[in-house]
Amino acid sequence: MAKLLIIDDERGIRNTLREILADEGHEVEVAENGKQGLEMAQAKAYDLIFSDIKMPEMDGIEVLKALKDGEEAIDTPIVMISGHGDVETAVQALKLGAYDFLLKPLDLNRILITTKNALESKTLKQETKQLRKKIVSKGATMVGESPAIMRVREIINKVAPTEARVLITGPNGTGKEVVAHLIHEGSARANGPMVEVNCAAIPSELIESELFGHMKGSFTGAVKDRAGKFEQADGGTLFLDEIGDMSLAAQTKVLRALQESEITRVGSDKAIKVNVRVLAATNKDLAKEIKEGNFREDLFHRLNVIPIAVPALNDRIEDIPLLVAHFSEQICGEQGIAVKTFEDEAIKALQSKQWTGNIRQLRNVVERLIILAGAKITKEDVELYA
Hints:
- This protein is of the alpha/beta class.
- The protein contains 16 helices and 14 strands.
- The chain has three domains: 3-132, Response regulator (Rossmann fold), CATH 3.40.50.2300; 145-311, 3-Layer(aba) Sandwich (Rossmann fold); 314-385, Helicase, Ruva Protein, domain 3 (Orthogonal Bundle), CATH 1.10.8.
- Residues 132-138 have low confidence and may be disordered.
């Protein structure tokens, strides 16, 4: 059963569509105007939305723009309805992200076919997204043969099959996320979810809700119940990136979750059991953060069962030739062009640079050289573009 929303200011159209779609076994809700429809679509997840175009206050095109544009854009297919055979409006709606465009008077067969196709399209998109995530995850690769990176690889191979918690440290851009993915892929949880949280990117007032979920009405903006990252990672791995930036209040709840294997959503007193392996990473000196009162020592010891220190690129410059070859093949494949080669002097020039941004910076430089330089990348190209 799919959840559908109908936005139309004509009661007759709303009721007719609702009856047709409810008879097909769908759960159908209606909105009397664009403003109400937008609020409902933003507050609740629907599988398909039908929206009239000509409506007072806020028309269907404005609703479509609001739902398909910006960071809060939704994947839900939206079918636009119009009583006017305006080709220009139909084209505009499709360009803005509408799934289809129906004309009044509505044809029963067309409604049913469009609904079936739209729902199948949504399911296919979701499956494709999951598949891409798995492909990206399974493709996690640690490139290099330096003693420093070989030590990291050896620890990963030993710790991955266990349930031990791991604290991954190292400067920004060194590949801490890759280490986390390799541990997950080498574990018995590899077929379970790998859920990532960037603690530095989430405002401190929202981090608890993000991690533990919340109940409807627990705070302003909590318009529906929501599972947090711990619940989403149940049976798999939770990767807490930049954990040194987490608030003390959230740290306390994470410690309890690790101790008791259960969490409580914000606004609830009901404990929820979770089976999660936690991996954490930070670019901060947590010993220093503990002394300054910014990080809980007991949480540090819970997380730091197996420490893995990922070396900076400046400490493994002998890996640069392998990294450059790897990135060149990867980037040229993405661009759909023949793989470009780097002359020996170009590699030496790259090895002589200071890589404050580490692996991430090197990849950006390789991409820039591939785009701007010729088929063979020279020392002069490196001096010009790197």
